Amino acid sequence: MVDSAKPVPPIWCPGCGDFGVLAALKKAALEMKIPTHDLVLVGGIGCSGSIHNFLEINGIHALHGRLLAQAVGVKLSNPALTVIAAGGDGDGYAIGMGHFMHAFKKNASIVYIAMNNETYGLTKGQASPTSQIGFEGNIERPFDAILTALSIPAPNLIARTFSGDPKTMIQVLVEALRFTKEGRGFAFIEDLSPCVTYNDTYKLWREKVLDVSKVEGYDPTDRKAMFRICLETMDSGRIPIGVMHRPKESSREGLEAKLLGDADGPARSDISVAPNLGAYQKLLAGIA
Amino acid sequence: MTTPAAKTSPVPDTAGSGAARAPPQLSDVSVMIGGQGGDGTLTVSDLLGRYFRKRGLYVYLSRNVLSRIRGGHADASVRGSRAAVAAVKTEVDVLVAFDKEAIEIGKAELAPHGYILYDSTTFQVDLPNATGFPFATLVGGPLGQPIFKNTAAYGALSVIFGFDPIETRSVIEERFQRRGGEALEKNLKALEIGRKAALETPGLADRFSVADGDAHDFIMTTGNQAVAMGFVVGGGRFFAGYPITPATEVMEYLQRYLPAFHGVVRQAEDELAAVNMIIGAAYAGARVMTSTSGPGLSLMTEGIGHAGAAEIPIVIADCQRVGPSTGQPTRHEQSDLSHLANLGHGEFPRFILSPGTPEECFLITVDALNLAERWRLPVILLLDEALCQNATTSRRFELDKVRIDRGERLTGDAVAALTQYKAYAFTESGRSAYAPPGTPGVWAEITGNEHDEWGHVTVNPTNRVRMMKKRMEKMIRARDELPRANLFGPAEARIGIIAYGSTVGPVREAQGLLTAAGTATKLLQPRTLYPVPVHEIDPFLQSVDLCYVIEHNYTGQFGRLLRETMPWHHTKLRALTKYDGSNFRAPQIVAGIKEVG
What we know:
The complex is a heterodimer of chains A (288) and B (597).
Chain A: H1 18-32, E1 39-43, E2 58-61, H2 67-77, E3 82-88, H3 89-95, H4 97-106, E4 111-116, E5 119-120, E6 126-127, H5 145-150, E7 157-162, H6 166-181, E8 187-192, H7 202-208, E9 209-211, H8 223-235, E10 239-245, H9 255-260, H10 273-285
Parallel strand pairs in A: 1-2, 1-3, 3-4, 4-8, 7-8, 9-10
Antiparallel strand pairs in A: 5-6, 7-10
Helix pairs in contact in A: 1-6, 3-4
Chain B: E1 25-26, E2 28-36, H1 41-54, E3 58-64, E4 73-81, E5 92-97, H2 100-107, E6 110-119, E7 130-133, H3 135-143, H4 149-160, H5 165-176, H6 181-199, E8 209-210, E9 218-221, H7 223-233, E10 238-241, H8 248-257, E11 264-267, H9 271-283, E12 288-292, H10 294-310, E13 314-320, H11 337-342, E14 351-353, H12 358-375, E15 378-384, H13 385-389, E16 392-395, H14 412-416, E17 445-447, H15 461-472, H16 474-477, E18 486-488, E19 495-499, H17 504-516, E20 521-525, E21 528-530, H18 534-542, E22 546-551, H19 557-565, E23 573-577, H20 586-596
Parallel strand pairs in B: 1-8, 2-5, 5-6, 6-7, 10-11, 10-12, 12-13, 13-15, 14-15, 19-20, 19-22, 22-23
Antiparallel strand pairs in B: 2-4, 3-4, 9-16, 14-21, 18-20
Helix pairs in contact in B: 1-4, 1-5, 3-4, 3-6, 4-6, 5-6, 7-8, 7-12, 9-10, 17-20
């Protein structure tokens, strides 16, 4: 047995919602029986983005907001890897917004967990894109990631979980890991993960969350119905949680499958000259 | 290593209108073709280039286009020469004009013996050395479309130059055969229309003749194409980019080349995504590259710094254009060097490599991929617009010069023999072995935060100093692996010139002119610009009395780097710079050297 990087103790405050994600990730990965060396976690910048340090895993710490671009690069380079991107709402919905929107469109088979605490915790409690009006003087309306995700017509898995409900979270994570393992595409999970120090919303959110699967007409394969259910739930002052979209088709819609089929991909190609010589000669003969 | 003797065109005697005398022979010919974007000026230059190549001439094609899809004046020039030239010729022998602007611009560049051929469909000019044919009307009737006017103009040119009719025709066949029956047929008809018009005009046939050359075993290519080919044979399998002039062709070529090798090319949503996608792919173990130009480079700066700190091997091809801001997207400049040498916040190592010809683009791209992986850092391929986009005759790219060196990359078997795997291990060589994710039995933390050997984040000051040294000393340790400088000219010359990138072409031609005028010079072409190769440049500067640093920017950026790294040579260095958007022509360099003194 070779010694590899060991997890370090979390930097999070006691009671942080991110602990829920950490525990759920461990359980889901165990349930899926993914070998450690095949698991990659791309972390963003912020408290939540440091999660890769606390797991026995291949961890890569991306730049602020750029985790999805890096995660897509990892997956397209070696499709055999299980790739999870994890970061916060500031990372994903502010500085990373361009990449966030395009991740749905690209539909590479990666899991993205956005831990939403409606604040910038690590820099001590500034308003974030999801902050409510009035929080730290915020006068801009909060952004809703689920409605945005539903607005992009791609065969993604879309869900919202709550750190106060670990059982559902594990269930959704397992589904997401399976979804990406099958090469079906992008799995987005927004986890409501309270910041106990700067925006302690545990009690409020526990009262407000509503499991959409219990709403009449719930059908995650029907984008229109889910858009309506989410809007109506929000209008009634509640926060919709659960699986919001699950594509009807179970085909390999993932970007890596479309580009590479069953090929090993760029990272595992034999790039020495000898086995490629004939093809290289043909390539060079193309310029006269 | 030979300095090409500069050929000055013999001035042809046109007094007899070519009737009784043998036609004046040119061994170095230049044709400028100007018109509105969409007039097909580039096609004419391409056809002429193909013909000259058939006759064994060295060819250099350049273009002056506007950043728009259609319309606006654009011009192209084609040069065919018996000497190995890699620059635009100063004087134009024949100007082909599809609009009035072409005449206004081209007249000034016309040689005393020069001739103007123009499309008189919409305008007339009253000049003694000009002939107009209504090409658009001539082809518009029989062929139904005026767009074939450019091929008709090529036909008329072939008469003026006394081209071999069969080879003139086979050029059209080669150019249009892939487009199929109708396109080929109509272009052949247009050719004959143009030829007939010129042949029926007294005094036009055989005004010039062009000497054959002996450059036969050559290919015609651009730096952008060479970089794309070098990337593939260098084992590059993942490319992400964002469209930007003049870098886009690298991505377009790779979109054609890479799928056959199960490679991946992605057009990203912006340059931030492009550089981070290649970072992710390189982390996962692929050989990667992106290509961009100034504005995109500014955005990628963040990611390049991250790759430097996290020790992730990436290659960035910077096809320089006029900056700052959007600058002049289609024009030539070499003004990103200062930015690249200091690029990013904080301090991290990087190599900046500078090819000067397509062949060097091909081989140095392979070097860049090897160096990036061996030393686990960002490598920048510094290109420029003229190098990227001007097509030239080039020696064939040789596969037996291609070596793949992945550094201390760990495979499953090698890992099994280890007791521990630290992705940032301190070693004698300064290089840490790397096992990409997916390697059975091991995993690592990779981060741009300061980290220990395991990749764990730490603020320990002793570790910080060791890690900084580990990274920064790559620029010292790798010295002898970096591409070496080329030297052109006699060792005993006391006047030195330093130039890099496409500037080397016109400088070598200028050396020929200077030699003919009795001034011996020697040129050092560094092919690594950063870290500054002091071990190559210091002895060179010691061997000369003074040295001109010739480059395309306002402040003399490489010259400033030389002064900074070798202040003891301060008094020897002279800056000769140009920043008007076009690349140097040889006589401008000769004049510039006289002026600077």
